[in-house]
Every structure is written in C-alpha cells, then in structure tokens.
Amino acid sequence: MGKTLAEKIIGMNAGKEVSAGEIVIANVTAALVQDGTGPLAVKQLQKLNLEKAAHPDKTVLFLDHSAPASRKELANDHMTLRQFADKTGAQLSDVGNGICHTVVNEDYINPGDLLIGADSHTCTGGALCAFSTGMGSTDVAIGMALGKTWLRVPETYRVNVTGDFPVGVYPKDLILYLIGMIGADGATYKALEFGGPTIDKMDMEGRFTLSNMAVEAGAKAGLIASDKVTRDYLKKWKRVNKWQEIYPDPDADYEKIIDIDVRQLKPTVSYPHTVDNTREIEQAVSDNVKVHQVFLGTCTNSRLSDWAIFAGIVKGKKPAPGVRVIAVPGSKKVEAELMKHGYLQTVMEFGAMILPPGCGPCVGVHGGILGDNENVIATQNRNFRGRMGNPEGNIYLASPATVAASALTGYISDPREFSRILKPLGTIPDPVKLTRAKAAKKTAATKKKAKKAVKKVAKKAVKKAKKKAAKKATKKKAAKKTTVKKKTAKKKR
Amino acid sequence: MQITGKAHKFGDDISTDHIAPGRLFHLRSNLPELAKHVLEDADPNFAKNVQPGDFVVGGNNFGLGSSREHAPTIIKLAGVGAVMAKTFARIFFRNAINVGLPVLVCDTDKINAGDQLTVDLSEGVVNNLTTGDRLTFSPLPDAMIKILNDGGLVAHIEKHGDFKLD
Questions:
Q1: What fold is seen in the domain A268-433?
Q2: Mapped to the 3 state alphabet, what secondary structure does chain A carry?
Q3: Nearest CB to B143: which of A74, A136, A150?
Q4: CATH architecture group of domain A16-151
Q5: What ipTM did this prediction achieve?
Q6: Stated pTM of the model
Q7: How far does the CA of residue A21 sit from the closest CA of chain B (Å)?
C-alpha cells in the first residue's frame, strides 16, 4: 500500500517506513516557540538542566504575540527568551520582525522538515510539505533540546479540490467552507492533505491560508505536496537548493476522501463563537450585521496577496463612519514588499491604522480589544469567546475581500458587489511572478545596456582603427615620398 | 488510584481561551495567579467554587484552540482531580498528560452538575455516587500511560534521560 504525505515525511524523519496508527520517535529538524509559550518551555528545560538546542540554526524564538511588549510582565518574558537565545545560540526573531508562522516559512523550513512549534497554528508549515504541528511548551522544549519527539502517525483525510474560484471567492472561503462542513472537531487527530487541480494551480500564499486553519478542524497537520509552486517559493527566498519533490503515492491509504468543487463556493463568514459556525454571504448580508472594527492581518491572511485584494477594493475610498480599520503586515519582509508595491500607502490613505508586524489584536493582548457587544470582522482564524480580549465582543471571520467590502459599508457585505474591481484569483499579482517579472525586466535592461556598451566600444574601436589606418596611410605616403626623394637623389648622383 | 469529588459541568467546545484567556497573557509566568481565573470565561465562579479532587466535565472537543500548556496546568493547580469529556482536542489532551493531569474520554451525558463521582484510574471506571451509574472510560495509549505514571514529561525525561516509551 502506498504512503500519504504524513506517512512519508514522518518516515523520512523516523529513519524507517511508518504507517498510520504507529507511535514513533522522530527527529525534530526545526522548532519554534513564541513569547506566550516560550518562557514556560525555558523553565522546563531549566528544571532538567537541559538548556540547549539540538539544531540552534533552526530553533527559533519569536517575540510576536505582544510585540512590542504591552506590559512589564511580558517585557520580562521577552528578556527570558533573549537570554535563552544568547545562551544556546538559538535564533531570535525579535519584536517587529513578524508572526512566527509567516517568518518560519520565509526563512527557515523546507519540504521534508519535521517542525514542532509551541503554537497551534504551526500547521501553517504543512503548505511547504513539512510535517509541521503544534504542541505544548514542554513537548517543544524537550523536542528542541533532544532533537526528537514522539508522535502518533495520523490517519489522513484527503481533500480533493477542483474548479476555478469564482470572482470574489478565495482560499479563505474554501477553508471556512470545509470547516463548516466537517466541524471544529471534524478532523481531530488526523492529517488533512489538500490536493487536486485547484491546489496545483494555487500560489503559496493561498496554500498557507489553507494549512494554517487545519487545526480549526482539529487536525494535527495540513499538508500539501512539494511541487513547482513550492520550488518557486523557495527560490524567492533564496534557498531553492533546499527543495525536494514530495508527492503522496497514488495508491495511498486515506481514511476519508472529501471532494470540493470551488465553482459552487460563495464568500463565507464564520459567526461567533466557533469557527464551524459558517454562513454564506447572502445570509450574513440579510442579517444586517453592524461592524465596529475591521482587521486585516494574522498568520492566516497578512501576506502580499491578501493586502493586494484588500487594497484593490478600498483604493481611493474611506471607511464607513464609525468603522475602525486595523491592518498588520505578517512580517518585516511582507511590509517591505507592501511598500514596494504601494499597498501599504493605499491602505494607509484609506484610513487604516498600521501596526507593527506581529499577531496584533488577534490574541487579545493589545492593539484593538473590542468593547462590550461590539462586532469585528477579521481575516484571522479564530473567533472563540474572549479571543480578542473581551468575552462580550463578537468576532466574525472572513476573507480579506469580504473584510474590505464590510469596511466600506459598515455592515458585513458581499465582496462580489465590487466585482468590477475584483479580478479572478490567479490574476492578482502573485509575489513570486512579480519578482520574476521584475527580474526579467532587469535582465532585459542589463542586456540592452550591455548591447549599447558593446556598440559604443565597437564604434570607438572602429574610430580608433580608422584613425590608426589613416595615420599609417599618412606615414606610408611620407615614407614613399622619402623613398622617391632618396631615389631621385640617387639618380641625381 | 482513586479520586473522589464533585462534577462541574461544562458544554461543548470549551476552548483554551475559556480556560486561560488571552487578556491574562501577562500572568502566564505567574501560574498561581493565573489559576485564580481558571475557566473564567465559561463559568466566572468556577475558581471560587472548586474543591481539591473535583472534576471538570465537558462535552465534545474539550480544550480546542491554542497550544497554551498553561490551560491544563492551571486546571491542575486549581486542584482538579481529572477532566472528563466525550472528546478532547489533540494538543490539550497531550499537554494534560505532560503536566500530569488525568484526562478521561467517557459518556459525560450521564453526569449532571453537582453529582458526586469516584474515579478509579487503573480500573478505568467512573462511579456516579449520586445516580448509581457506572461509566467506563477508554484506556490511554501505552506511551501516555508511561508518561503519566512517571508524573509528566519533565519527570519522565528526568528519570530516563530520554524518551522511554517501549
């Protein structure tokens, strides 16, 4: 029987063939903690006198949940992690550098890695075909110190996705639809494996959104094959040499197969207080849900293409009266891309408050806590009661397009009303393609310049040659003259 | 090992945000203080009312959401003897074993708020002294029993210097 992606990657790191249901000890090739879970991890290692990192170059400590620190207690927790980095040589991603799941994908993990992270959304790395899963502080502490952990090899639900996304419908709507269908515990202890023609065509950023929310269905991992799209992504971040092709076997043993044709999908919204409490946009619009705050950000949707969609809808406009807009780039690198492409400026001019790269208001620590009975529509992954700092607030989840449309009207709104502005998915600037196009332009320019330079040199050479020839000719003439003169002189004698 | 106490009943989908809310993020390095707020967003009076040995009884998908280990840790610090639910979220379940908090999968519909229960961990039985019901719970995987018997994952590594789960 063939292997699923989960069985393949865990097997690669356990040094043997493995099958679903087996309990194995596997190598941990990368580990992450953040400022909410890292200090406890450090304390556990101190208890064991085991303060070390087996792979310091791929053990990363992120200060992102309260960044910059919102209270003295958290500032002290940040110090604990900075000191641990100094002591062990582990990597520190300090305040302002970005969200752990965004940065770890940009800078650290590769297909075939086994990443454990003390943050439930570590499953985001599954889009890069790493077996990437969330655990608690103690599990990750011991995993990073010993370079191994124990795992139960999960059974897999294969999600086959077909069709082209309709205008105004995005990967976020697909994953909300899936969770609404199978439930918040629909894949508990399982691996989700996304595949099919729609996934083959999907850019990495859309794939990250899918894998990120696997845990919202209870899954241990959300895996996607490592293909050409993965390769292009690694190339963008200058480590294409780390790419390897990984596909599930065609005869892999799946516990369940779920088929979704995205042509049937509509913009989807999760209502408070569970992610699986989903409605199609028409229902949400007819419910007249007033919006007090909108939020573009988080490890789910804060990358270049998310901002491109949001900026495309709000460009040149203003939010509805009484709507606060908060936008947070996923990382410093995303922020730089946004500036380069003008999206940061567009969203600022629209009237958004831009917070530093990090988790922002999603975890309820700072940067946009709700008032009693206030509603927020956000691009994040969770809407549990109290998630954004106030159990009396209500959180609605949606795509960047639905969030942008709602910011303009002050009510949850259908982004398809802006279909004249929206373009079908795939025509939204793909950061990888953009980089490529830019590179191509640069190459062309360099070539032109080089050609010009060659021409110039050639021209100069011709000129020089002509000059030389002329000089030679003059000399020859002069010499002839002299000879003639000499000859004449001889004759005269 | 037998534990006796009162049932505190909760519904489905009790998240780690109910147990250890994000607004108390700054108390994560002060666990006894954080424990005073345990389960606050599901039942504001729970921390005041819970007695040593009492049980937290949930429905489906108990402990979903964040990986914060502080959630099972403060349930244990509050003196809770075990958490029972029809199903648990994966990370919470694993964290609970790691911190030495027993988690039992059983049919919690047969338990009412305030029922007096006795749990026998080695026999895998919950006796409801109030209703007379006798419930069995699914045994833990062997690997987890080993960790729980050693007193949690830190104690397990301290004892063996490595994973010893065979």
A1: Aconitase; domain 3 (3.30.499)
A2: CECCHHHHHHHHHHCCCCCCCCEEEEECCEEEEECCCHHHHHHHHHHCCCCCCCCHHHEEEECCCCCCCCCHHHHHHHHHHHHHHHHHCCEEECCCCECHHHHHHHHCCCCCCEEEECCHHHHHHHHHCCEEEECCHHHHHHHHHHCEEEEECCCEEEEEEECCCCCCCCHHHHHHHHHHHHCCCCCCCCEEEEECHHHHHCCHHHHHHHHHCHHHHCCCEEEECECHHHHHHHHHCCCHHHCCCECCCCCECCCEEEEEEHHHCCCEEECCCCCCCEEEHHHHHHCCCECCEEEECCCCCCCHHHHHHHHHHHCCCCCCCCCEEEECCCEHHHHHHHHHHCHHHHHHHHCCEECCCCCHHHHCCCCCCCCCCCEEEECCCCCCCCCCCCCCCEEEECCHHHHHHHHHHCECCCHHHHCCCCCCCCCCCCHHHHHHHHHHHHHHHHHHHHHHHHHHHHHHHHHHHHHHHHHHHHHHHHHHHHHHHHHHHHHHC
A3: A150
A4: 2-Layer Sandwich (3.30)
A5: 0.95
A6: 0.89
A7: 11
